[in-house]
Amino acid sequence: MADEEEKLPIPPTFLEKLLFYTTATFVLLAIFSLFAFLFLVPFVIEPAFTTIFMQFDPVAALCVTTEVKQLFGVSNCSWASCREGCTKDLFECTQIRVNYKLGYAPNISATEYEELIRAERSLRKDYEYENYESPIDKIDPEMEQQELEDIAPTGLQGEDSEWYFTGARLFPNVKGCGYPPILNCTVFYGKYKPIGNNYTCYYSRIDPGLVITELDMWQNTLNLVYAMAIPIPSFIISVIYLTFAYFKIYNTEDESEQAPLQSDAEAMATGDDGKPTTPGSDTFREDLACFGHQLKLQLANDKPKDGFESNSPPISNSASLSGTKSSFVNA
């Protein structure tokens, strides 16, 4: 009964339980924050940065749908105006092109608005116009004799044109893709696909041929802050705690448990005089003799007496003496 009571496990203390649950919490927090960040990179962080870098004009432009194409095949579908899912391949796509002219903020006059348009269309000082080679100079003479079809001009227009840009690509957002219920391509095509529809849109100053239908820079910035300010600090704090716990808290417990074993090993390795114990030293010989004596006593105590007496035949001193005497007489 005493041995069974000694073998009962010692229940953990409150501090040990607190340390265990705290460590488990930080481990799970580090795992979930890492996977959350990897999930948010392609769906939130990268589109938000792209929207900022493309520098969309916050003043809405006036767009009109001018061309719609329904194409099939991966080679023909290099882009689509709307697609549900940002990772799947395109085998069928609908491309919408629009013409747009710049809108103006309500706090400026029409004269100031005209000056802004002229500034947008003016020659840039940082562009090398002298080294520009016109593609007309490179036309093959045989091509000049052929009659070319009349193609509507696309791109930036001159001051005499009603439109600022023609043939721009229309997207719901900067990536042109999303997932329901945030983006529903059926509703998008139903609203913007009909030829001649007028609506507001937002063009990019970096790529004027890119036009989106919705722009909310405040919400875009807020999503970017949430996507980076929550998982990244959570992961860093978890890693710092786990590193501290591994090198300081748990390492101290292991050292305290190994201290008695280390002291016993040092005591066995050195004698009473503090010198190292070797096979030729007196201390080693004394310890070996003491160990042998204790081993003999232990074996003698453990050996059953009844079994020893039953297995060995009884020998009497008188019988042995009489047998010895008779043998000498007969001789």
From TrEMBL:
Q: Which residues cross the membrane?
A: 20-45, 224-247
Q: Which UniProt keywords apply?
A: Membrane, Transmembrane, Transmembrane helix
Q: Which GO terms describe its biological process?
A: regulation of sodium ion transport
| Positions of region (Disordered) | 258-279, 302-331
Please tell me whether the keyword Transmembrane helix is annotated for this protein: yes
Q: Output the Gene Ontology cellular-component terms.
A: plasma membrane
Give the signal sequence positions: none
Compositionally biased intervals (Polar residues): 309-331
A Gene Ontology molecular function term for this protein is:
sodium channel regulator activity
Q: What is this protein called?
A: Protein tipE
Q: Which organism is it from?
A: Pieris brassicae (White butterfly)
